[in-house]
Amino acid sequence: MRFVGIDPASKTGFVALDGNGDILKAKELTGISDNDPKRMVTLINEVTTHLMAKDIIAIEGFPFSTQKAMFAGGLHHGIRNDLYKLGFKYYEVAPNAVKKYVNVTGWEGEPGNKKRLKGAAKKRAVMQAVRDHYGFIHTSDNVVDAYIIAQIARACYLRKVQHSYQAEVLKKLGIG
């Protein structure tokens, strides 16, 4: 049994963990070509070719705002459509829940003097939190997000977490 995390984007993060949480595969998928629909179709195909029959899958939910909304919407729907056609069930994890699972709120500083994390600063905070929680390091923030999502898939199956903020994420997914 494997636990798979998918972070759909033009550079899609894909992580598969074994039953102990050890990494079996961690890579960034890009498809072929810079032009759509070829890029999107080959990227979706690349995601599904890495799946195995008994995978427990979690996928990041639709982004709330993006500069490339048409591509993001098409990719997210395309992956979900293929998962459905192949008979896979999956957990859908909201983007903010992915960050919350490693205790990143999107803010830094003390009460009364908080500053909102944006862009690269938010990505660095998530990458550091994953390093602190799991010891996992990767150069791609998409793969790091997919790693968190794979850990969420694993926790959904095992129904076990180590922190209250992780339990809150599972509760929003209808687990626990």
| Unreliable segments of 5+ consecutive residues | none
| Spatial separation of the terminal alpha carbons | 21 Å
| Proportion of residues in extended strands | 15-25%
Strand order of the largest sheet: 3-2-1-4-5
Major beta sheet, specifics? 5 strands, mixed
Task: Tell me what the structure shows.
By secondary structure, the chain is of the alpha/beta class. It has a single domain, classed as Nucleotidyltransferase, domain 5, CATH 3.30.420.10. Helix content is 44%, strand content 18%. It has 6 helices and 7 strands, in the order βββαβαβαββααα. The chain has helices at 38-49, 69-85, 95-100, 119-134, 141-158, 164-172; strands at 3-7, 12-17, 23-29, 56-60, 90-93, 107-108, 115-116. The strands form 2 sheets. A 5-stranded mixed β-sheet has the order 3-2-1-4-5. The protein has a two-stranded antiparallel ribbon with strand order 6-7. A hairpin with a 4-residue loop joins strand 1 (3-7) and strand 2. It is globular.
Output the keywords.
6 helices, two-stranded antiparallel sheet, 176 residues, 44% helix, alpha/beta, Nucleotidyltransferase, domain 5
